[in-house]
Specification:
This protein is of the alpha/beta class. It folds into two domains: 127 residues, Aspartate Aminotransferase, domain 1, CATH 3.90.1150; 238 residues, Aspartate Aminotransferase, domain 2, CATH 3.40.640. Helix content is 42%, strand content 15%. The chain contains 15 helices and 13 strands. The strands form three sheets. It has a seven-stranded mixed β-sheet, with helices on both faces. A four-stranded antiparallel β-sheet has the order 9-10-13-12. Strands 1-11 form a two-stranded parallel ribbon. The longest helix is centred in the last third of the chain and has 21 residues. The chain is globular, with a radius of gyration of 21 Å. The termini are far apart. It binds glutamine. The site of glutamine (GLN) has 5 residues, from loops.
Length: 386
């Protein structure tokens, strides 16, 4: 029987494809974004303690209150925002669930969601599954929003705009003026909401404070701000994220969340609450930790023909490989995995609009040894390439 697919044009996500290829090719995996080192010892001990201490049944649907309180406290300290933990903070099973829930709550048939290319690959299918229309707007050359094109993309069907800073895949960050311009572009459009995917909020370099949408009361009033503990605590496999939104928006989000996963894993929520309460310095040190890795990785490739783009945040490094090869990025990434034995992400897989440059993405959330081995292989490969 032929299946009538709801997503006929969608294949397997590039992150799984490249991780699979890394495995079969014996490649160092700098593709899918995840650390190759463990979460802090205190977090592991807390999970063990809570799992053994009977915290193994359903958590409250919206998340453990103590974890929501810890998040609210963190956001008050970091951005001066003071969300009400009871009505404005919701825990989800990862940021990807959060994104899906918000889109499902807002988008109906024919509604439009504006996506800024390149962007994370879950946004578009989530819109399509609701019968919505993804409207793709390319980012500017420096990967900040092209506000003129954004303003021109609105129609009376626009319901949602999704922004993501620090930006995956480019590592671009916003300046305070960008938030002001974004607020201006949205002003007066009362039925347009904003998803601000801020999962890399704690990885911002060169002493720049992160420009969360939560700093702007005007933007906050229409926003779902999404965070991730996986990124901040080297625990992407634990799948715990959160959403901050005004009470009436959080209520709509929870209507979906309760029937997607109902609630998120209980002992992990307790463990994150413990470390947020007891070890705030982990988050304070994270930018420095990753900045060091960024600098180390860039230095290792500095003499090569991979042209490294600037990185202001995240644990991703883009490289223009046009001096090495005229191939398309999918083809080049495949060859790199097999011949150089280094797996990367071809950036065109994250963009519905054609890109002006040929780019691949490296993840540098790796140990020194992993980065050194990958760089050695990349340099050997590019020396052997005419
Ligand atoms: N956010 C991660 C990345 O960009 C991957 C997440 C996933 O594989 N779904 O690499």
């Amino acid at each position: 029987m032929a299946v009538r697919s709801k997503l006929p044009q969608v294949g397997t996500t590039i992150f799984s494809v490249m991780s699979g290829l890394a495995e079969t090719a014996g490649a160092v995996n700098l593709g899918q974004g995840f650390p190759d080192f463990d979460p802090p010892e205190r977090l592991l001990a807390a999970l063990d303690r809570h799992a053994r201490g009977g915290k193994n049944q359903y958590a409250p649907m919206a998340g453990l209150l103590r974890l929501r309180q810890a998040i609210a406290g963190k956001l008050a300290r970091d951005y001066g925002a003071e969300p009400d933990p009871e009505h404005e903070v919701t825990i989800t099973s990862g940021a990807t669930e959060a994104i899906f829930d918000v889109i499902a709550a807002l988008i109906g048939p024919g509604d439009e969601a504006i996506l800024l290319d390149p962007c994370f690959d879950s946004y578009e299918p989530a819109v399509l599954l609701q019968g919505g229309r993804p409207i793709h707007v390319p980012l500017a050359a420096d990967f900040t929003p092209d506000f003129e094109r954004l303003a021109a993309a609105f129609s009376e069907r626009t319901r949602l705009v999704i922004v993501n800073y620090p930006h995956n895949p480019s590592g671009a960050v916003l300046a305070p003026e960008h938030l002001e311009t974004l607020a201006r572009v949205l002003r007066g459009r009362d039925d347009v909401y904003l998803i601000s995917d801020e999962v890399y909020e704690h990885i911002v370099f060169d002493q720049k404070p992160f420009q969360s949408v939560l700093r702007s009361p005007e933007l906050r009033a229409r926003s779902f701000v999404i965070g991730s503990f996986g990124k901040a605590f080297h625990a992407t496999g634990w799948k715990v994220g959160w959403v901050v939104a005004p009470p009436e928006l959080s209520a709509e989000l929870r209507k979906v969340h309760q029937f997607v996963t109902f609630a998120t894993s209980t002992p992990t929520q307790h463990a994150f609450a413990d470390v947020l309460e007891q070890e705030p310095e982990h988050l304070q040190n994270l930018s420095r930790f990753y900045q060091h890795k960024r600098d180390e990785f860039r230095a290792l490739l500095a003499g090569s023909r991979f042209r490294l783009l600037p990185v202001g945040g995240t644990y991703f490094q883009l490289a223009d490989y046009s001096q090495l090869s005229p191939e398309g990025d999918l083809e080049f990434a495949r060859r790199l995995a097999v011949e150089a034995r280094v797996a990367v992400i071809p950036v065109s897989a994250l963009s519905a609009t054609p890109l002006e440059r040929r780019l691949i993405r490296f993840c540098f959330a790796k140990s020194r040894e992993t980065l050194a081995l990958a760089a050695e292989r990349l340099v050997r490969f590019e020396r052997g390439t005419p």
